[in-house]
Amino acid sequence: MSGLPSPGATGEQTTVGVLALQGDFEAHGAVLARLGAIVREVRVPADLEGLDGLVIPGGESTTITLGIEREQLGEPLKAFHASGKPIFGTCAGLIMLDSEHLGIIDLRAERNAFGRQVRSFEAPVELGLPGGPVAAVFIRAPWIADHGPDVEILAEVDGHGVAAREGQVLVVAFHPELSGDDRLHALFLQSVRDARLAAA
């Protein structure tokens, strides 16, 4: 698809947080570290200080919501976004960022849209990245039910949006940390690096 830059350089000298309230945050951290980023697990508002970017991973969206409320992370996460720093949401992370939850990206996600756990599947998703389609792992995955005019749908599966971007926010409905394909994380880290340089 158009609009996606080449991943280019990886995440040297970037410090990226991974929301670590529940879900597969450790797998994301391993990919980011392999690509050269300094990784910090985020559990309380103070953990957001000094980060260049943030990943909100997949998991159970209700449990993550309760954790955000318990730790009073909602407003700090919105402020982090307002500061212009990139955010990458995957699967439940897409749900958490939508207009019905944190309201950070102008779209509405349909939970478990492709079916429950037993309906999990893998499919090639064309994102316009060098190297061809991404082998996307969908587990109790949402899809994008509707979206505002500033949201760019980057990929679809069966006619439903599964990847989108608005400003510095990138979301996908699948689990890129499970595929062995680091290109989406590299793309995100390049956006983090670019945003940091632009702010310098």
Record the SSE blueprint.
Blueprint: E1 15-19, H1 25-34, E2 38-42, E3 53-56, H2 61-70, H3 74-82, E4 87-90, H4 92-97, E5 107-110, E6 121-125, E7 134-138, E8 143-147, E9 152-157, E10 160-166, E11 169-172, H5 183-199
Parallel strand pairs: 1-2, 1-3, 3-4, 4-11
Antiparallel strand pairs: 5-8, 6-7, 9-10, 10-11
Describe the structure.
With 200 residues, the protein is of the alpha/beta class. The chain has a single domain (15-199), classed as Rossmann fold. The protein contains five helices and eleven strands; from the N terminus they run βαββααβαβββββββα. The protein has helices at residues 25-34, 61-70, 74-82, 92-97, 183-199; strands at residues 15-19, 38-42, 53-56, 87-90, 107-110, 121-125, 134-138, 143-147, 152-157, 160-166, 169-172. Strands 2-1-3-4-11-10-9 form a seven-stranded mixed β-sheet. The chain has a two-stranded antiparallel sheet with strand order 5-8. β1 (15-19), α1 and β2 form a beta-alpha-beta unit. The longest helix has 17 residues, at 183-199. Mean pLDDT is 92; it is low at 5-12.
Brief characterization of the structure:
It is built from five helices and eleven strands; from the N terminus they run E-H-E-E-H-H-E-H-E-E-E-E-E-E-E-H.
Fill in the keyword field for this structure.
27% strand, alpha/beta, 5 helices, two-stranded antiparallel sheet, 26% helix
